[in-house]
Structure formats: structure tokens, C-alpha cells
Design goal:
about 90 residues, mainly alpha, 3 helices
Length: about 90
């Protein structure tokens, strides 16, 4: 059987268990849970931020309307009624 280059004589190999334990420490359980939750929530939070930013830019910059009206519920109710009216 032919020897692979990694099986040559004189090559020092570290045991698999030693390298993983010395170079990479495991994080505490609580920190891993918090990081997992943050990772899971990152995309929805970024989507909501993009939606709010888009509403603001579209209404104030492109629509030339007052900035305070963006966050009022009546503004968006009126927009909905205009878009989905029967006539």
C-alpha cells in the first residue's frame, strides 16, 4: 500500500484532543444562549429597521411631506384607504 505524504516518518502529529482544548476555549452556557438569541433576532430587527427607514425616506424625502406625520397612524390609514378604495 502506498504511503500518503502525511504519513511520512519523523513528522510530529499532535493528538486531536489537546489542540482543541488548548487553543479554543468553550464559552459559558449563558453567553452561548445570549449569542444564539441575538443571532436569531438579528435578521428580523434589521428588516424592521429597513421598513421604518424606507417609510421615512419615502414619505419625507420623496413625498415632500412633514417628518412628524410619518409616525401618525391616521396618515397610514388614509394611505391605505386611497390605495384600496372601490372607485
Amino acid at each position: 500500500m502506498k504511503k500518503l505524504p502525511s504519513e511520512t516518518v519523523g513528522e510530529s502529529q499532535k493528538p486531536a484532543g489537546d489542540a482543541s482544548q488548548t487553543t479554543a476555549r468553550r464559552r459559558p452556557v449563558a453567553l452561548r444562549i445570549v449569542l444564539g438569541i441575538l443571532r436569531f433576532c438579528l435578521v428580523p430587527v434589521l428588516c424592521v429597521a429597513a421598513l421604518l427607514g424606507g417609510l421615512y425616506v419615502g414619505y419625507v424625502v420623496f413625498g415632500k411631506a412633514p417628518a412628524g406625520d410619518v409616525w401618525e397612524w391616521q396618515t397610514w390609514k388614509h394611505m391605505y384607504d386611497l390605495v384600496f378604495s372601490e372607485s
